[in-house]
Amino acid sequence: MSEALYNAVLSRDARFDGRFFTAVLTTGIYCRPVCRARAPRRENVRFYPTAAAAEAAGFRPCLRCRPETSAGTPAWSGTSATVARALRIIDESRGIEHLASRLGITDRHLRRLFEEHVGAPPIAILQTRRLHLARSLLAETSLPVTDIAYGSGFSSIRRFNDSIRKAYHCTPSELRRKRPPTVEPVTIRLPFRPPMRWNAMTAFLRSRAIAGVESFEDGCYVRGEVRIDGELRMTLPPSLARDIQDLVVRGRRMFDLSADPAVIAEHLRGDRVLRPLIRPGTRVPGAWEPFQVAVRAVAGQQISVRAATTIMNRLAPLLTPGQLADADVQGMPRSRAETIRGLARAVADDPSILTRGASVEETVDRLMALRGIGRWTAHYIAMRALGEPDAFPDADLGLRKAAAAIGIEPGRLLAHAERWRPWRAYAAIALWESL
Length: 435
Known about the structure:
Layout: H1 2-11, E1 21-24, E2 29-31, E3 45-48, H2 51-56, E4 60-61, H3 74-77, H4 81-89, H5 96-103, H6 107-117, H7 122-140, H8 145-151, H9 157-168, H10 172-175, E5 186-189, H11 198-206, E6 215-217, E7 220-223, E8 226-228, E9 233-236, H12 244-254, H13 261-268, H14 290-299, H15 305-315, H16 321-324, H17 334-349, H18 360-368, H19 375-385, H20 397-405, H21 413-416, H22 424-434
Parallel strand pairs: 2-4
Antiparallel strand pairs: 1-2, 1-3, 5-9, 6-7, 7-8, 8-9
Helix pairs in contact: 14-17, 14-19, 18-19, 20-22
């Protein structure tokens, strides 16, 4: 296998970018396989599945190919279901103990799983992601160093400076380009693994956009002062600098940028019945604000997309759990309005209901425990609001119609979908698009 990886380095084939990292013993630097630097001698090379594993072994990132710009690797998705869930929510967690508690395991067991499946402890993964975000902000923006430190997730300037020195062997000021702070908009690249069907993604989201909350202008997704364009560049004013880490997490979740569409498509094409519907670059449209998508799922029960959007536009001023808990919700059956209020009260009392970490089965069971939320609604929330790749609302009439068109009987859809796991959500998108 190592010889094959070395040949990939020699070829600089972009299809291998992000799938592994190459560390050079003589320089102490690790690179992406597409780095344009002169290829090292075979005997001086070591291969690592993740950037964090390379850094844990004592190597520092290359300043030429910048490993922070490569998309997440398959190894970071883990071969353990628990590790896969952990990696999806690690950026949203307040430390490793908090992450472990959300997964329902001890922090000791979490560390053991990471060492086995990722090759580095969870704190190294989290630290590497923060450093890579900080490195990008230092190189590509004019933000003050203090704003970059807090915006990339560090709790103090001292810890930020120490981490930069240790990782890059220089100070933040030495690392960044010499440019004074300005009031220009900040632009951040959101790494992803191509292809990306931007038009298909935005068409789905545009038809469900909430008036006054989000919009699409000149091909960009706009939410408040944040813009994301088709090149997956996020633009925001300097006043939001200290919220950058949260905004990046939201943007990546909304556009499903952690997915590896080539791997998913290859798996789904293994089913000859589904194969004709699989298109390169399919992703699952996610949520900037999970609670709003959860409300939409309830509001949209048994009605059209357009009718659900009309209701969401009417609810726009009230789309927080505290406001909706006792609101007078109009334009829908009384039982559905009460379900929305019940959901709002439940989330206000326990926000973890709409946080990622549990398995799809645990998530669905927890949501179905709320009055008025059935299997379809629970799976739709898990799929879009929580980014669960294996959620599958099999009771959806559109899915059943699309499945019937390719020869899958509606009563057999759920059983047939077993062969699509663990990416049933992507199969659902393919079926919906076929309509």
